[in-house]
Amino acid sequence: MRAEPGETVLEAAGRADEHVPFGCLTGACGTCTAELLDGEVRYRRAPRALKARHIEAGFVLACVAVPETDCRLRVGANVQAELVENPWK
């Protein structure tokens, strides 16, 4: 799929009929967390749902991330679940 200039990953996915989980659309809930495997993004607004360590590890929020280059992302509920530590382990 190809994003239009200024379009977020989530907007491009919706236009291409690709399913990416999302919630708030403001970068606050983390439901749309994706792992950036290749490429670069910029943010329309701060990705409040991600901690600095998550950003450093390559996670992005699809609802506020605008691709700056060709990107490859891993998306889905399992990606978002990787950010939350299980206290029962």
Task: Give me some keywords for this one.
single chain; 89 residues; alpha+beta; three-stranded antiparallel β-sheet; two-stranded antiparallel sheet; 3 helices; 20% strand
Walkthrough of the structure:
The chain is an alpha+beta fold and about 90 residues long. Helices cover about 20% and strands about 20% of the residues. The protein contains three helices and five strands; from the N terminus they run H-E-E-H-E-E-E-H. The strands form two sheets. The chain has a three-stranded antiparallel beta sheet. The protein is globular, with a radius of gyration of 12 Å. It comes from Salinirubellus salinus. Belongs to the 2Fe2S plant-type ferredoxin family. InterPro entries: 2Fe-2S_ferredoxin-like_sf, 2Fe-2S_ferredoxin-type, 2Fe2S_fd_BS, Beta-grasp_dom_sf.
Shape: globular
Strand content: 15-25%
Q: Determine Rg (CA atoms, Å).
A: 12 Å
**Classification by helices and strands:** alpha+beta
Strands of the widest sheet, in order across it, are: 3-1-5
Order of helices and strands: HEEHEEEH
Quickly count the helices. 3
The largest pleated sheet is described as:
3 strands, antiparallel
Number of strands: 5
Helix content: 10-25%
- Distance, first to last CA: 38 Å
Averaged pLDDT, please? Answer: 92
- Spans with pLDDT under 50 lasting ≥5 residues? none
Organism: Salinirubellus salinus
Protein name: 2Fe-2S iron-sulfur cluster-binding protein
Family: Belongs to the 2Fe2S plant-type ferredoxin family.
Pfam families: Fer2
Concise overview:
The chain is of the alpha+beta class and 89 residues long. The chain contains 3 helices and 5 strands; from the N terminus they run H-E-E-H-E-E-E-H. It is globular, with a radius of gyration of 12 Å.
